Amino acid sequence: MIKRSILYLLFFNLSFTAHVAAQNSSEQFLLEIEKNLDLSALRDNPILDYSQSDSVINAINHQSDSTFKARFYNLLGQLNFEKGEYAIALEYFLTARDYVDTADFRKELEALILINIGNIYYRNEDFEGAKYKYEQGRSLALESKQEGLAATASNNIGLLFLKKKKFDNAHFYFKEALNLRKKLSDDYLVAHSLQYMGMLKYHEQEMDSAAYYYTRAIEVANSLKDDQKEKKLIVSLSNNLAFCYLDVDKITEALALANQVKKLTEEIDDLYFYCTAMNQTANVYLKCGDFKNAEEVSSNIIEIAGIENYFESLQKAYDLLSKVKERQGDFKRAIHLSRKSQEIKTKIRNNFADKKLANQRFGQQLLGNKKLLSVAQRESAVKTRELETQQRVSEFLVLLVIIVLIAVVSLVYSNREKQKSNKQLIATNNLI
After folding, report:
1. Residue at 332 is within a domain
2. Range of the domain at 60
3. Structurally, how many domains does the chain consist of?
4. Which of 190, 229, 238, 382 is the most exposed place for a label (fewest CB within 10 A)?
5. Which CATH number characterizes residue 30's domain?
């Protein structure tokens, strides 16, 4: 449960990075792209080869915006990240970073791109690499006074420390993020940071403190406008608080929250979020002994996740429904469902291992190519300087030869003039 909670919140936080990126991208930037590309089609298939992306860039008047190329490739990276194409996303992020050096507001853009690259490392389970990129992004964000982006990086670092059970370190970064977001006066972000503080206290087994932070976060979230984004946040917070209540045997309170979540998710259009969140809610129902609702919710998830190919949600729903049937005494059905869950889990594990290996190989090759390109560029620069030096030496030698030739010609001419003068002197002497 604890591990699952950490992973869910980290994924939630990483996806939130895209929200920050969207804030940082100006409306004018997106409008310019939309004139030349169908954004909905780009989201469905965000892989463009460089000739296509160059044609888009050249078609848009971006002379006054030196950040355009960096932001465009960063956008492609984020869209591929959302699709789970991490190796391709990494290539776009690295390309975006290449253009950052020539852009205005370099630190602001580079901070965002570094955090995005950190997310790639995290998904490939390179946690140290992810932490290093988050720390780089955080430093640049603080230097450029981007409090929102710095807070996102701090939360990501805090979650990585929490994963290692280094609670003091996690507390430092979560608290820093909370203070930064309070400065922004953005209650939505503040509610998120309160959620991370609650999660930290939950893992420290300080349930009263955890419940306090979750309750406070729900109060802040309820004060926001009634939109899809806010509803998702309230659902997530309510599930977290319900687990706190379960750990201190407050069954009535946990059940009441589960019922609220079930009702609220009916207003949310995002099927993936529905399956993810309701798996937690179904687990609450199961622990509260409400087998009817647990079975109903799990069956709904199995139906939706099966159609949409949400394999992780599907596996968890089969596993949960198996436990419901076991508690109801239907052991034959429980065994069947448990086998289905295990089959999907094995498939997920194999797919993840294959994709992770492919991503790592592609990423290593890509980083290797980038290093080779960097070396080649440095060698080219050295050779260019050598050629320039040789050219200057050649020009100097030519100039020196010309000077010598002029001196020789002058000397010859001078000798001839002297000879003429001497002859005249001899002739004059003879006459005398």
Report:
1. no
2. 1-173
3. 1
4. 382
5. 1.25.40.10
Distance CA(65)–CA(29), nearest Å, equals 9
Residues 421 and 402: their CA atoms lie apart, in Å, by: 28
Longest alpha-carbon distance in the chain: 151
Cβ proximity of 190 and 182 under 8 Å? yes
d(CA 196, CA 48): 37
Return the DSSP state at 289: T
pLDDT number for residue 86? 86
Concatenated DSSP letters for 93-121? HHHHHHHHTTSSSHHHHHHHHHHHHHHHH
pLDDT tens-place string over residues 108-119: 889 999 999 999
Rounded CA-CA distance 31/267 in Å is 30
Q: Provide the token pair at 109.
A: 């853009």
Poorest-pLDDT segment among 37-46, 176-185, 319-328: 37-46
Q: Which of 127, 165, 169, 135 is nearest to 152 (CA)?
A: 135
Kind plus residue range of the DSSP H or E element containing 21: helix 2-24
Three-state secondary structure call for residue 204: coil
Question: The whole model's pTM is what?
Answer: 0.71
* AA letter at 339: R
In this structure, are residues 324 and 337 in contact, taking their beta carbons and an 8 Å threshold? no
Written as six digits, the tokens of 240 are 């977290």
